[in-house]
Amino acid sequence: MKLKKEVLLKNVLVKRNDGDFMKILLIGINAKYIHSNPAIYSLKACAGEYKNNIEIAEYTINQQAEDIRRDIYLRKPDV
What we know:
Helices cover 38% and strands 18% of the residues. By secondary structure, the chain is of the alpha+beta class.
C-alpha cells in the first residue's frame, strides 16, 4: 500500500520549469469554525518526504466565497 501512495505522489509532484517541486494547497471547507477536516491532514501525513511542499487551508461555509478565493490566490499554489 505504501508503494502505491509514493507512486501517486511522484506523479502529482512534478517539477516546475525552475526545478522546484510544485506547491500544493489542500483545502477544507468545514461546517463550523470548531470543526476540522481530518482528510486533508491525513493526505499531508501520507506525503512522506513531500510534506514541505504541501500547505493546508481551512475555511467555513459561513465565510464569504470572495474571501476564500482571495486567500487561495494570495497563497499562490501550483496545485
